[in-house]
């Protein structure tokens, strides 16, 4: 039997329960008291708790208490905490996507994907606390992958090249998103971006970091670049934008090389 011959029931059995629930392939058990909850209510309540108090605060007991039910009653809808986390991740990715751009604006399209992904980590700081256990397999997560692929639709790339670029861009977005999330957390806790960037430590580091021990780092510290001291000589601007532009430059160079190679055949 080929993959194309698989039935919905077989697909449901092949997926984790949370993923199967996200696709509507499995219906919650009907036993017990009259059904007065929904999977959507449970997931949204979990997200509200996580947004406010962090992922560690999410438990079936606390969710049930917030909804006015017992913890055991939640398991008739969602079999486990792991399945709940899958559903929370998927729900966090359910946001409006920008309109499709012309093929010539692929750089802007990929930039929107990266910035949109970063925003998920800022809107839902707990999102990055859930470990990556495999490829995206839920509907909203896959919608985000589809969004990343959209600007590459007309590029002279095969599917493996496209997915490798998606992985590169999503990895960059995840890294920047988690850094920005941590900055947000520090600021909310009473710190400042100045302190987070180390600017308050510039003088101490200039005293302590000796050239004989740190021959390449010491000049960078002395220049103020390490702690982002504003001395008017920074041509980079935003580190996020600078790094993303270099990634997009690399993709553009790769496309040019492929086009030139094809023209020479």
UniProtKB/TrEMBL annotation:
List the GO molecular function terms. Answer: DNA-binding transcription factor activity; transcription cis-regulatory region binding
One GO BP: negative regulation of DNA-templated transcription
Q: Which residues cross the membrane?
A: none
Residues annotated as DNA-binding are 59-78
Keyword line: DNA-binding, Transcription, Transcription regulation
**Alphabetized SUPFAM superfamilies for the sequence:** Homeodomain-like, Tetracyclin repressor-like, C-terminal domain
Q: Which residues form the HTH tetR-type domain?
A: 36-96
PROSITE patterns per record: HTH_TETR_2 (PS50977)
Q: Report the protein name in the record.
A: TetR family transcriptional regulator
Species this chain originates from: Paenibacillus cellulosilyticus
């Amino acid at each position: 039997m080929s993959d194309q011959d698989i039935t919905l029931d077989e697909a449901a059995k092949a997926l984790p329960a949370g993923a199967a629930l996200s696709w509507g392939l499995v219906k919650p058990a009907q036993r017990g008291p009259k059904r007065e909850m929904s999977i959507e209510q449970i997931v949204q309540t979990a997200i509200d708790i996580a947004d406010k108090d962090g992922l560690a605060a999410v438990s079936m007991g606390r969710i049930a208490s917030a909804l006015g039910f017992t913890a055991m009653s939640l398991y008739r809808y969602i079999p486990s905490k792991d399945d709940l986390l899958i559903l929370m991740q998927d729900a966090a990715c359910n946001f409006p996507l920008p309109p499709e751009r012309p093929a010539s604006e692929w750089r802007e399209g990929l930039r929107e994907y990266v910035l949109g992904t970063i925003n998920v980590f800022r809107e839902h700081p707990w999102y990055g606390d859930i470990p990556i256990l495999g490829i995206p397999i839920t509907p909203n997560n896959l919608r985000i992958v589809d969004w990343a692929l959209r600007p590459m639709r007309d590029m002279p790339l095969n599917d493996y090249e496209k997915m490798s670029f998606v992985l590169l861009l999503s990895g960059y977005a995840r890294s920047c998103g988690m850094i920005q999330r941590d900055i947000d957390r520090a600021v909310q806790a009473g710190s400042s971006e100045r302190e987070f960037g180390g600017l308050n430590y510039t003088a101490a580091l200039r005293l302590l970091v000796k050239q004989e021990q740190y021959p390449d780092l010491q000049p960078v510290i002395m220049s103020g670049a390490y702690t982002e001291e504003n001395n008017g000589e920074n041509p980079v601007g935003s580190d996020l934008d600078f790094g993303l532009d270099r990634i997009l430059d690399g993709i553009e160079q790769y496309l040019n090389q492929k086009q030139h190679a094809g023209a020479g055949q």
